[in-house]
Amino acid sequence: MSDLLARHRAVMPSWLALYYDNPIEIVTGKGNRVTDADGVTYLDFFAGIVTNMLGYDVAEVREAVERQLARGVAHTSTLYLLRGQVELAEKIARLSGIPDAKVFFTNSGTEANETALLLATCARGSDQVLAMRNSYHGRSYGTIAVTGNRGWKNSSLSPLNVHYLHGTDRDHPAFRGMGDEEYVEVCVADLRDVLATATAPDVACLIAEPVQGVGGFAMAPEGLFAAYKEVLDEHGILFVSDEVQTGWGRTGSHFWGIGAHGVVPDAMTFAKGLGNGFAIGGVVARGDLMDGLPANGVATFGGNPVSTAAANATLDYLLDHDLQANAARLGPVLLDGLRPLAASLATVGAVRGRGLMFAVDMVEPDSGEPSPRLAAAVLEETRRRGLLIGKGGLHGHTLRMAPPMTLSEEEAREGRDILVEAITAVDAAAR
Ligand SMILES: Cc1ncc(COP(=O)(O)O)c(C=O)c1O
After folding, report:
1. Nearest ligand 1 atom to alpha carbon 108
2. Which atom of ligand 1 is least distant from the CA of 213?
């Protein structure tokens, strides 16, 4: 064991998982590659968990941060006017498509979701929330309460009353073999049933990820959330889209993941990619919803001058270079190369994705059961070949890839080919 790993184990929580048998210490980065402490360079297809949206050492972001630091002010608090924060809020409000939108900045996705849940429960005078099975919304009490993934559910203590909906569980025996239309119908009937039988009146909101990040990029059929929203609207129930992983055009076809369902939500939460590594998250919501809190609120560090300088530069870069179009263009390059594996290899259960969010389920070749063991083996094999990827899914059996949105076609092909090689090697060894 390396000295740093031993020190890590001694002082860091045991539940803070490290990847790889011999964990990596990343020390430098440039473009879409990182180099570890042993001098080994990797193409990065996980981007610090879907966060280094522009890759590494981007001059525009670095210079914006340096300009702010050179002014001598890293923090003032929101007691004073913050030009960078107002500018960023204006951009996000405009991009959101939400009428009369207002924005509140936080330091993380967890805090963003906490805020959205607070807005919805206050507006509706109810602690009842609908959430999706297999979801992940954060690590605090409130966000764990709406997380429907046992692997991340540390506590049942909850400030909310939560009911879980179907929509991303096509493998459930009750739904197997159903086409999209029938599955949507059954899910909507279940939502109606939950509201008619299981909840007290006045449910506050539904919170949902358009593509479930930690849940292994599982996704509802297009149109499901529009069908859900029709029912929600009948009851005045609000809709919160958790865009922490799916925002900023990563899914290629739409700027927000929920766009694929033709829905404009009442609120959206965001974090991860916005600051290209600098800590910033937030909520964008209808102005009346945002303004509806009955008491004061503040996030001391939320939207501070350094993180908003990084976020403004990141968002401008993303829009100037139309990285959403890049995600739309490269998604098929990656998926077309990986899809055939599902038919040809017994260890590959399914391949799916939208834009630069794509996933491969690893299964046991004999039983077809989810295989976290084989997923871990593919991680080791991709690492040996110079590629970083992620893992996820309800059973930890899903390979998750979300490279920087600045990925070139050459890099897409390089990473895809390494993935195919690594999965093929693991498949051969598993038989
Ligand atoms: C969809 C989603 N929501 C919320 C969060 C929580 O964000 P954070 O880790 O920044 O608190 C995550 C983190 O992975 C996420 O994927």
Report:
1. 10
2. 16
